[in-house]
Amino acid sequence: MVSFPLAVALVAGLLSTAAPGQFAAPADAGAAQTPGATLTPRDRGDIFMARKMYREAIEAFSQGSKDDPVIANEIGIAYHQLGQLDKARQYYERALKLNPRYAEARNNLGAAYYAGKSFRRAISAYRRALEIQPRSSSFHMNLGMAYFARKMEKEAMDEYQTALQIDPNVLENRGTFGTVLEDRNVENRARYHYAMARICAKAGMNDQAIQYLKRALEEGFKDKKKLEQDPEFEAMRDLPEFKALLTLEPRVL
To answer: Which of 82, 121, 144, 244 is buried deepest, with most CB atoms within 10 A?
Structure first.
């Protein structure tokens, strides 16, 4: 198995910043500021992060307090986006040393381990993040992804289901999962999309279930008998969209 592409990690919700909307920069970050206002190192870093200028963001953040766990976490995110996982882990760990109950930094450490294919360590980090914030739907989704990477599908399904119970919109909020999975092999993509179809169907999210089933078939999912047998799809089998899926031939890859 291969790791998720780092460039989409923040968009997909794998990484956590200190506060929602933290990277929302002005429409024109070069525009004049309010007279008398002074940009802090964190302000400048946030602007560079919004522009995806990660090296410049690191330089700006580094001019801030060395004892601020939020700044350490954001430097870690910038290195993570650059694909420098060792550096990213170093700064996430610094943030956690400064604040051991910094759940977002713990989650991000898990994402760095995941990207480096250290799935056991990723699972451990996500679990510890959930000990601090047990109601985080994103953390549950991340833990589910790590379980899925280790082919622990029952555990993964449980985590996905918990995430949806906490936040029914978690899938929309995290962006398109097909994007984060683009570097995985074809078999794993098909399995993942089928698993997500089952979760959505169980939650009564029929439209989303249909979309995930379609993706699974497009990725070569061949066991269409499961569509007729798995109990999660019981309420969907009379839908025209579901019947149409049964007539599709799996993609030849």
So the answer is: 144
Termini Cα distance of the chain: 18
- Residue 246's contacts (CB-CB under 8 Å, 6 or more residues apart) are 224, 227, 228
Q: How far apart are CA 122 and CA 94, in angstroms?
A: 17
pTM over 0.85: no
Q: What percent of the chain has pLDDT over 90?
A: 61
CATH of the domain at 160: 1.25.40.10
- Whether residue 120 is contained in a domain is answered as yes
Computed over its alpha carbons, how large is the radius of gyration of the chain?
20
Asked if 191 and 211 touch (Cβ cutoff 8 Å), the reply is no
Number of domains in the chain: 1
Summarised one tens digit per residue, pLDDT across range 141-166 is 999 999 999 999 899 999 999 999 99
